[in-house]
Specification:
Blueprint: E1 2-5, H1 13-18, H2 23-31, H3 37-45, H4 60-72, E2 76-80, H5 85-100, E3 104-108, H6 121-129, E4 134-138, H7 145-153, E5 157-162, E6 175-178, H8 193-205, H9 213-222, H10 230-242, H11 248-256, H12 266-283, H13 287-294, H14 298-332, E7 341-344, H15 353-364, E8 368-373, E9 379-384, H16 391-395, E10 403-408, E11 412-417, H17 422-431, E12 441-444, E13 446-447, H18 455-461, E14 476-479, E15 482-489, E16 495-502, E17 505-511, E18 525-537, E19 540-552, E20 563-565, E21 578-581, H19 587-593, E22 601-603, E23 612-618, H20 623-630, E24 634-643, H21 654-666, H22 675-682, H23 686-699, E25 702-705, E26 708-711, H24 724-741, H25 744-754
Parallel strand pairs: 1-12, 2-3, 2-4, 4-5, 5-6, 7-8, 13-14, 17-19, 20-24, 21-22, 21-23, 23-24
Antiparallel strand pairs: 8-9, 9-11, 10-11, 14-18, 15-16, 16-17, 18-19, 25-26
Helix pairs in contact: 5-8, 5-9, 5-13, 6-7, 8-9, 9-10, 9-12, 11-14, 12-14, 13-14, 14-15, 21-23, 22-23
Length: 757
């Protein structure tokens, strides 16, 4: 990842004076383009009264007239929602508002497992048969061509309210109220479903209805739409309303989340409230969450909130369980060197597939699809990716040949398919892997002024919030810090805490999932990138940094060292001029997984520069290759030896060879790829099985008959050591292990004797 600093002209001094801005808040406003009197006044003072006239949104007048007609005539109205936090809050907003207006209103939330996402023809049939005369969709509907047509044919009008991207054809609905409808006059185009529902209710009730803003805000944060423009009003005022809420359901949810009214911020909503609502739809029917939000009884609300808390805890357990099993599949199938992952287990819980895929992408930096089988035998899954690999573009061409359902965007997707196509998907997904645009770039705001840091500093920063999409939480750099008080924290010691010191101040910093850091690496840290938060310990409140990233550079040593041993470090630091590789097969790994710039990677044999700082990232095959590399002209060399292309990490024990051979003779109908499934039963990973098979082929113990593995009827008797492949691999493993485990001083002495002076 590359870090890039935002730039902007300073705010005019008269604006700084007028709005009483501190230097840090003035700079942050400038960096976000909030740099005029009009923009600053809107930011500080706009309320729901300043929202645009809702009638400007496409088909608004038509929709409102039809809703009022249904209310006047006592027609049954059904709100057709969605099972995520946005759909849940949108359903609640519309149901509550129509109830206040005296409508005969009901709601329906699709079941993730039975109905799938969005319009479902069978459910529309049920709703029509149940006497509904007007269907209002919230947070869905733009794909419901067939469903809307069915309703229309049976005398039922449909009003679609949505914010998702239109496809080629639009439904023939009575009205389509959409914040991004082509050519409409409404100026804000990034409402979530709850935001669109709230806008309709403003027009219906001819009032800003601030009592609905808490729900619209939760949907906005939960769906990660813009918190700038009108989104800023929704979130800022919605937080005000939430912190004073009298809704029994929200109060019970807040209590169970361990939050305190009057102190809840956008982070609390994003990490504590919205996930609890989402958990209901992931594991059960999201109607329960709507019941919670509509409840006006404290006891009933607490009972429902407790059920939701249990579901949220179960969601966490299932996510961990499925994630752990996915990592086992990677090991068992020797997919560590794959660029992509397609992970399938019929026992995975469908509700957590997207969460697990996202977690794997964060851990392994590989585009990942996680699949399971539902009760009808259909294979369903979710995929996640990262900047540089467009998941939608990779999978969209496979719709006709491999997928029965598919939808998504650049970095996330959902899909369905048949079980016998999973291996084909795995192969085509891997074959299409490529990364566009080089390394991911992340922006930071400014160097953190270290003097006089206090909780008040955060209050100044928060003037530029609430933060979210379009207004990212500020990230600060701390350059060339002196690091003290470094130690590991957490039950598994996978987090770190340290103090960054500069001559004008210091800051305590927590780094989550930064267990690769240790005392040996601290001198190499040139910049720490942090967000700021408050830490309360024993009733003492202090400012702390949350580590977002690190930049490394060669340490400024009193006595320069030409050879540095970093073999024990698993993390690749971006501190070399050039990263050298012995094996070209490792280039994609270094580019894509280790995130090294393409122009900094060279093969040892092609390297012809001089006077650079280099890192040897992979292992040579033998001493001749190592010696040749060390004779080149470097200013400084970092020894990593991190990667290899060994077929196995160690030669399997002789007993496993016998076990595999016996299995082949007993099961002559299996293809080599079938042993991917057999390997765990044999107590091996797939790479080890493939290695054993290759040895057997060389020695004539087995053969392929119609692409199936069979044992030779009269093989020549010879020891395993007769295999040249086995002996060569064994010799290479021995050399590499020696290279990786040699005492530091001995290795450095050896390298110093060879490097060119």
């Amino acid at each position: 990842m590359k870090w890039q600093q935002r730039t902007a002209e300073e705010l005019a001094p008269d604006l700084v004076e007028k709005y009483q801005l501190s230097p840090i808040s003035a700079r942050l406003f400038a960096l976000r383009g909030i740099n005029t009197d009009e923009k600053l006044d809107f930011w500080f003072n706009a309320t729901e009264e300043n929202l645009t006239d809702p009638s400007l949104m496409h088909d608004m007048d038509k929709a409102v007239d039809r809703i009022n007609q249904a209310i006047d005539n006592g027609e049954k109205i059904t709100i057709y929602g969605d099972y995520d936090a946005d759909g849940i809050t949108a359903t609640t907003i519309m149901t509550e508002a129509l109830s206040i207006l005296g409508a005969d209103v009901h709601y329906f939330i699709p079941d993730r497992f039975k109905d799938g996402y969005g319009p479902n023809l069978d459910r529309y049939k049920d709703i029509v048969a149940d006497g509904t005369k007007l269907i209002i969709t919230v947070d869905n509907g733009v794909t419901g061509i067939e469903e809307v047509e069915y309703a229309k044919e049976h005398g039922v009008d449909t009003i679609i309210t949505d914010h998702h991207t239109f496809q080629e054809n639009k439904p023939d609905a009575y009205a389509i109220v959409h914040c991004n409808y082509p050519g409409q006059e409404y100026p804000f185009d990034d409402y979530c479903g709850a935001g669109v529902a709230y806008t309709i209710c403003r027009e219906l009730m001819q009032d800003p209805v601030p009592e609905l803003l808490d729900l619209a805000m939760i949907g906005t944060i939960g769906d990660m739409v813009k918190v700038t423009g009108e989104g800023h009003i929704i979130v800022k005022r919605g937080l005000d309303v939430l912190n004073q809420t009298e809704r029994p359901g929200l109060r019970a949810l807040i209590k169970n989340a361990g939050l305190t009214l009057e102190t809840i911020n956008e982070t609390d909503v994003g990490f504590n409230i919205a996930p609890r609502l989402n958990a209901v739809g992931r594991l059960a029917n999201a109607n329960l969450a709507v019941e919670l939000l509509l409840s006006d009884d404290d006891l009933e609300a607490q009972k429902i909130a407790d059920q939701i808390e249990d579901l949220n805890n179960k969601r966490k357990e299932l996510t961990t369980e499925v994630y752990d099993r996915c990592m086992e599949l990677v090991r068992e199938n020797s997919w560590q060197k794959q660029n992509t992952l397609v992970l399938y287990d019929p026992d995975f819980h469908e509700g957590v597939l997207g969460l697990v895929a996202n977690k794997i992408v964060e851990k392994l930096h590989k585009p990942t699809i996680v699949l399971t089988k539902n009760d009808e035998g259909e294979i369903k899954g979710s995929g996640r990716s990262f900047i540089g690999f467009n998941l939608f573009d990779a999978l969209n061409p496979l719709k006709e040949s491999l997928l029965t359902k598919f939808g998504g965007h650049d970095f996330a997707c959902g899909l369905s398919m048949e079980e016998d196509k999973v291996n084909d998907l795995r192969k085509k997904f891997e074959a299409d892997f490529h990364v566009d645009g080089g390394l991911e770039t992340k922006e930071y705001d400014m160097e953190l002024p270290m003097h006089d840091l206090s909780p008040q500093t955060l209050a100044q920063i928060n003037q530029v919030g609430p933060f979210g999409t379009g207004d990212p939480q500020p990230i600060f750099s701390i350059s060339d810090p002196t690091i003290t008080h470094f130690f590991k924290i957490g039950k598994d010691k996978n987090h770190v805490k340290l103090t960054a010191n500069k001559k004008d101040g210091n800051l305590a910093i927590v780094g989550f999932n930064k267990d690769y850091l240790n005392n040996n690496l601290l001198p190499f840290i040139s910049k720490i990138f942090v967000t700021l938060s408050l830490n309360t310990y024993r009733k003492q409140v202090s400012l702390q940094g949350i580590m977002e990233g690190i930049a490394f550079a060669s340490p400024k040593l009193a006595v320069p060292t030409s050879v540095i041993d970093l073999r024990q470090e698993k993390f690749v630091m971006g501190l070399a001029d050039r990263y050298l590789l012995f094996d070209k097969k490792n280039i994609p790994i270094v580019k894509n997984r280790l995130q090294i710039d393409d122009d900094k990677i060279s093969l040892v044999k092609d390297y012809d520069q001089s006077g650079e700082t280099v890192a040897l990232l992979d292992v040579p095959r033998n001493q001749v290759e190592l010696n040749a590399a060390l004779e080149k002209d470097y200013q400084q060399i970092y020894l990593r030896f991190l990667l290899d292309q060994l077929p196995v990490e160690q030669i399997p024990a002789k007993s496993y060879f016998g076990k595999v051979l016996k299995y082949i003779y007993a099961h002559p109908a299996l293809k080599p790829e079938d042993y991917r499934t057999v390997a765990p039963y044999l107590g091996l990973d797939y790479d080890s099985v493939l290695f054993i098979l290759r040895v057997f082929f060389e020695l004539g113990f087995v053969k392929l008959d119609d692409q199936k593995l069979v044992g030779e009827s009269n093989p020549k008797k010879q020891p395993l050591t007769a295999s040249k492949y086995l002996m060569a691999t064994s010799s290479q493993i021995k050399f590499i292990n020696q290279l990786r485990t040699m005492p530091t001083q001995k290795l450095i002495t050896y390298v110093n004797n060879l490097v060119k002076r």
